[in-house]
Design a protein that fits this description.
Blueprint lengths: L5 E4 L9 H15 L3 E4 L3 H4 L4 E6 L5 H11 L4 E4 L11 H9 L4 E6 L6 H17 L12 E4 H8 L8 H8 L3 E6 L13 H15 L2 H32 L2 H5 L6 H30 L6 E5 L4
The structure holds uridine-5'-diphosphate and magnesium ion.
The site of uridine-5'-diphosphate has 15 residues, from helix 3.
């Protein structure tokens, strides 16, 4: 059997409410392309076993690991990812592919009029700006998962062994000719977001720690500067009191008056330690070399 022209990889976590409407729109959108394709989805397998593969996990390993598992098993010459909740309209796949036809190996989606809460949009804008500053990855909307990847990029991602990652950014590091197009964005068709605030924070730590060590470097620098500044402040205050009271002992008492400064330094220190912990934790996971996910079953037609 020849490799299909296109694979669609969709991470699915407790999306039973939205899957029927997803399939109702996804398959017609793919059929309209007229090309051979292979979609990796759940349940639809029975209806379309010729073009559907489903990877079931024995637990939730997260959106990005689900995509990695899809990447490792899809065969398409091009691979498109989208979310299951219909926030990424399947009808846009054709436009991503048309852009690839122009010679690009990576086409990222940029959500036009993003339909999410003000908080999510604001947080995304901040994280995009931060990523732009501390990494070499250049993209307008890293959170948009409606993207098209060449087979070469997928192969490169598959050769990575990291446990925590952020697919759109990882793909960018392997892309030779990346580009972006605006894509539509819709309200979640059913169900609720699978990201709690905690999971969102973790995801963004994955993004930062997977692609930059600058935060580590910046905090050591900031730590040295603050320490030096506080020593200088002590010297000034001690000398000042020494002169005023005409007693060195009186001047040295200033040390005990600086508790606000101490709090400030403790805060910096704690954050630095916490950030270090984020890296160390990930190194720990990496060196354990556990399987990154365990596949329960693969539904596919025997060839
Ligand atoms: N998802 C997943 N595992 C997770 C979280 C999310 O497979 O731990 C999938 C989810 O089913 C959906 C996509 O990733 O297809 C995006 O998730 P969601 O729409 O909940 O995120 P949001 O749009 O709120 O960022
Ligand atoms: Mg969503």
């Amino acid at each position: 059997m020849a490799a299909p022209g296109l694979s669609v990889v969709i991470p699915v976590y407790n999306e039973e409410a939205v899957l029927p409407s997803l399939f109702a729109r996804l398959y017609p959108a793919l059929d309209a392309l007229g090309a051979s394709y292979e979609a990796i989805l759940r349940e639809q397998f029975q209806k379309r076993p010729d073009t559907t593969r489903v990877i079931l996990f024995n637990g939730n390993y997260g959106q990005h690991m689900a995509i990695v598992a899809g990447f490792e098993r899809c065969r398409g010459d091009r691979v498109v990812t989208l979310d299951a909740d219909l926030q990424n309209p399947p009808e846009e796949i054709a436009r991503l592919l048309a852009k690839m036809d122009e010679g690009y190996d990576y086409v990222g989606g940029v959500r036009r009029e993003r339909r999410d809460t003000v908080f999510r949009r604001g947080a995304s804008r901040l994280m995009n700006a931060l990523r732009e500053r501390i990494t070499r990855i250049r993209m307008s909307d890293q959170g948009c998962m409606l993207r098209a990847y060449s087979r070469d990029i997928v192969a490169a991602i598959n050769s990575c062994r990291e446990v925590n990652t952020f697919i759109p950014a990882l793909a960018y590091t392997f892309a030779q000719r990346p580009t972006e197009i605006e894509v539509a964005h819709e309200e979640r068709a059913a169900g609720e977001s699978k990201y709690s605030l905690y999971k969102l924070v973790q995801l963004n730590f994955d993004l930062v720690t997977s692609f930059s060590v600058k935060p580590l470097q910046m905090f050591s620098l900031l730590g040295m500067l603050t320490a030096a500044a506080s020593v200088l402040a002590y010297v000034i205050v001690i000398i000042q009191r020494w002169i005023v009271a005409d007693s060195l002992v009186e001047g040295l008492r200033a040390i005990w008056d600086r508790d606000i400064l101490q709090f400030f330094l403790t805060g910096i220190l704690l954050f630095g330690v916490g950030l270090l912990g984020e890296y160390v934790g990930r190194i720990y996971e990496q060196v354990r070399q556990r399987p990154r996910y365990v596949v329960q079953a693969v539904l596919e037609r025997k060839e």
